[in-house]
Amino acid sequence: MRRFLPSAAAVACVLAVSACGGGGGGTAAPPTQVSDPSKVSGEVTWWDTTRPDSEGPTFQALIKEFQAKYPQVKVNYVNVPSDQAQNQFQTAAQAGSGAPDVIRSEVAWTSQFASLGYLQPLDGTRAVDKPDDFLPGPLSSTKFNGKTYAVPQVTDTLALIYNKRLLKEAGHEEPPRTIAELKQTALDVKAKTGAAGLALNVDSYFLLPFMYGEGGDLLDVANKKVVVNSPANVKAMQTVADLISSGAAPKPATTESYANAMTALKEGKAAMIYNGPWALSEIYQGKEFTDKKNLGIAPVPAGSVKAAAPTGGWNLAIYAGSKNIPAAYEFVRFMTTTEAQAKIAKEISLLPTRTSAYADPDVQGNPDVAVFKPIMDTAVPRPWIPEGGQLFQPLLEGYQALVGGKSGPADMLKGVDEQYRGIMKDWS
């Protein structure tokens, strides 16, 4: 699964909630629980947002296990590209038809969908099993106005992913730990191997480690302040611009940069990228990593303040207008068990959201998960507010202008700040 931005249509709809209207309500009490869950019947349509080639088979195998346990429940598996799922779900929920019973919702979408009345409240239902077992960070993304509207399925953050062979040929046995080291390592790779040092991804999510590294952020939620246009963030944008102008990172295209960076890494044309655990199953398909030991994973390099990356992940949420609520409860419960999360971690290295899953031998036996777990401990929570998903598009447009030479760091952030104030109207 690659990390995508919300579509312009989805953003526009959220900006005019009163015009878009509500979905299935989302405020009614949950239906009475059945006495024997194994006798639940019905048909559950699930919109999955994973990559169908590298991640999808694991989830489809879990569906087969679910249907063996619940033979009277039919699951309709639909893979929806993650750059389309948010807008498609919102459109269907608003229309009152065509929405799935269960959606794999990016953590930033959950509070947005809940605020619009599209999600079924889950407190006290069978969908939420052993809530105290979930890690606090992922669990916090499922809440809106004190109620639970989703269950955490997987969590993630960003790391520096690198080609050990190329770094070694450039004279580096260890990955860079600071931005200064990142720049020098990338220049050494370029000079000594001919490969690009660092392949950048022009995506707002991937810009956040540079901001966090300088002590910056997008919003100060506690004080309801827009802080994107700060000296710390200007310094971060100057860092990104310098990586490009120095040749440490080749100038990226403003579109398809994610695919370009992944291809360059897999083919040995770039030594380093920023990416998350969801990318590993695809990376291992590349010719450079048929020997998995050639892949290195390290924390994102630190700026002048710290090394930190955003908290990401995916939740399972139930459409408030579903006609198969009891079956949907059982499906969400099953897909978020310790056993299901352990299978996902073992096979495709996606990080569990349950504490108990990290004690499972299959999880402990996956070295990629072992590397990412301590990186997750330093991840920065994003603002779990309905407007959270809207923050990325203005930042993307600014990033594209910066990379394209149409705007300098200060002007870029000034423009983003102006757009944020149009979204967060009552913030200072």
Automatic annotation (TrEMBL):
Residues making up the signal peptide according to the UniProt record: 1-19
Protein keywords: Signal, Transport
Entry annotated with the keyword Membrane: no
InterPro entries from the UniProt entry: SBP
SUPFAM superfamilies (UniProt xref): Periplasmic binding protein-like II
Lineage: superkingdom: Bacteria
Entries under Pfam families matching the protein: SBP_bac_1
Family membership noted in the UniProt record: Belongs to the bacterial solute-binding protein 1 family.
Protein name: Extracellular solute-binding protein
